[in-house]
Amino acid sequence: MAQMPNMSAFELNISYTYAMGSIAMSSTEAPSISAARLMSRLNELAQVCPIDGGGNCRLALTAEDKLGRDLVLNWMKELGLAITIDTIGNVTGTWNTGSGAPVMTGSHIDTVRTGGRFDGNYGVLAGLEVIETCQTLKLELQRPLAVTFFTNEEGARFAPDMLGSLVYVGGMQTEDALDVLAIDGPRLGDELEAIGYNGSMPCPGVVPHAFIELHIEQGPLLEAQGFVIGAVTGVQGISWQEIVIEGQSNHAGTTPMSLRHDAAYIAARITVFLRELALRFGDHQVCTVGKLDLFPNLVNVVAARATLTLDVRNTDEHLLQQAEREIADFMQVLEAQESVTISARQLVRFKPVVFDERVIALVDTISKKNGHSVKRMPSGAGHDAQMLARVCPSGMIFVPSVNGISHNAAEFTNTSDLVAGANVLLQAMIALTSHEFASSAEA
Ligand code: HGY
Ligand code: MN
Ligand code: MN
Question: Under a CB-based contact definition with an 8 Å cutoff, are residues 86 and 169 in contact?
Fold first, then answer.
């Protein structure tokens, strides 16, 4: 990747030109969002398919997802945004002020089964709030502002995750994405059509001038270290595999231990191996077995088959590859030892992504200007911004997660932090509308 020139942060004494009637007045007083409006929308979306504890279950392309989509789409219409729905169901609302490629923000409103109310939703609704604030202030911006919710960011029902933004940037063919099968069976394209979001706008989509995503950290760092804002430097590498272990069903009471080919036992050995590998590698290495299905899944039958998923991540691509090799080697040894067959199917493989230093610096500078403590940090979770980074200068803003909890109904972020993050997003997006990135020749 071409070395970035020695970038200083954007010159931030931009004046905000307000068109109050015929009088254009400018102020260096940075605008701020309406906290009440943002919280009201967050609370209203959180009522769409709630689960015990205050979270949501709106798995991608389900009837529940449609209800969330319909609500946000209606808010986009109320703001008079130009709306596009593309062939993979990504929905973009654009305030067509200024000219040229838009400054885009966005995230997702699909959730995992134990979703919190902020994961993804916060970034989309803060984007709406940014646009409404700029409209209300009648800000005269050089470029359009756009907010998008992307299809199937979570990847919990259809792999890969960030599927919608991956197709949006041309990283996956639409036809291939439409043929992906859900963990519960249906074809993605059929589910998209069933909820009425099979749009006509072709992918790859409009290349934004810049993309910036606001998201909760979903981890413990910012809270534990007392920071309000995370200026996200990039996203760690992600490797998802589906492992199928074919053993031999047998009687639980009569089969001596030495004669068993027990798929459940082998799944457990792999699970323990992953935990031990992560502890051995340390640093950013994480490993998870999140999904495990047994067949015939009965109390008195030695399991014939086990199907499990491996989620392995690291900020370092070489270490991630080493982890994948060690896991493959271990499974090969198990296969011979236990006389079973073990097959692996790659579900997701994304290398670590580095965000644009100019966008990172902008988040850093604006946060400090607003009096917030800010930490530069990588993202442990995958995000749509990592896909937009393939086509335009991109970055992210994090706010703290209380107790680092996410993908859990107990997910929570203090209102003051939600508002702080949304104001950084507002001011960053405005700054980006009047900033011309050095051409690659100058870079
Ligand atoms: O899995 C992830 O990192 C994201 O939540 N899709
Ligand atoms: Mn998310
Ligand atoms: Mn998530």
Answer: no
pLDDT at 1 over 70: no
What number does CATH give the domain 7-236+353-442? 3.40.630.10
In order of 117, 266, 297, 299, the CA distances from 256 in angstroms are 49, 16, 19, 17
CATH code: domain 239-350 is 3.30.70.360
The ligand 1 atom at the shortest distance from the C-alpha of residue 218 is 5
The answer to whether the Cα torsion of 289, 187, 72, 145 is positive or negative is: positive
161 close to ligand 1 (CB < 6 Angstrom): yes
Q: Is 262 in the pocket of ligand 1 (CB under 6 A)?
A: no
The pLDDT value recorded for residue 439 is: 61
Q: What is the pLDDT of residues 267-281, one digit of tens each?
A: 999 999 999 999 999
Question: Which atom of ligand 1 lies nearest, measured to the CA of 112?
Answer: 5
Domains of the chain by residue range: 7-236+353-442, 239-350
For ligand 2, an ion, list residues with CB under 5 A.
Answer: 119-120
Distance 309 CA to ligand 1 centre (A): 14
The pLDDT value recorded for residue 17 is: 59
Q: Is the beta carbon of 153 within 6 A of some atom in ligand 1?
A: yes
